[in-house]
From TrEMBL:
InterPro entries: AB_hydrolase_1, AB_hydrolase_fold
Originating organism: Dendrothele bispora (strain CBS 962.96)
Protein name from the UniProt record: Alpha/beta-hydrolase
Listed GO MF terms: carboxylic ester hydrolase activity
Pfam families: Abhydrolase_1 (PF00561)
């Protein structure tokens, strides 16, 4: 994922709410540096440092998918004073551990293959993924 995917949503929210909206790339995503460890507590600390660096208060922290787990870890880990977070919005993820589906494993394999091919365009990657989906029995019930 990348914060660029949220640009139009962030702008719309900023305009509607008349307040600044920040989109962050978590470590190893988008324009963020690649760093270890890549754990939820460490990524929560990264978010905490951003909030502290910008002296943000009474914020609405929104997280999507893995970012949702990072947002929950930030709040539940008590990395910040309670008054810092006014609202927590978590989309498309639950605060549980679960098994990875066969379909997900198949997509991970496809992404590894695409990465190894050193493709130049998203279209090339979509074409490889489309072929992978046709050939993968775990994606065709």
């Amino acid at each position: 994922g990348s914060k660029r995917n949220w640009h139009s949503v962030a702008n719309a929210l900023s305009n509607e709410l008349n307040r600044p909206v920040y989109a962050l790339d978590l470590r190893n995503h988008g324009e963020s540096p690649h760093a270890r460890p890549m754990t939820y507590p460490q990524m929560a600390l990264d978010v905490t440092h951003f909030i502290q660096k910008h002296n943000l208060e009474r914020i609405s922290l929104v997280g999507h998918s893995m970012g949702g787990k990072v947002a929950m870890t930030t709040v539940l880990g008590r990395y910040l004073p309670p008054s810092t977070i006014a609202n927590l919005v978590v989309a498309d993820i639950a605060p549980i551990k679960g098994k990875v589906s066969r379909a997900s494993v198949s997509y991970f394999e496809a992404m590894k293959k695409i990465e190894s091919m050193k493709l130049k365009t998203k279209k090339e990657a979509r074409n490889v993924l489309a072929e992978w989906e046709k050939a993968s029995p775990s994606l065709n019930p």
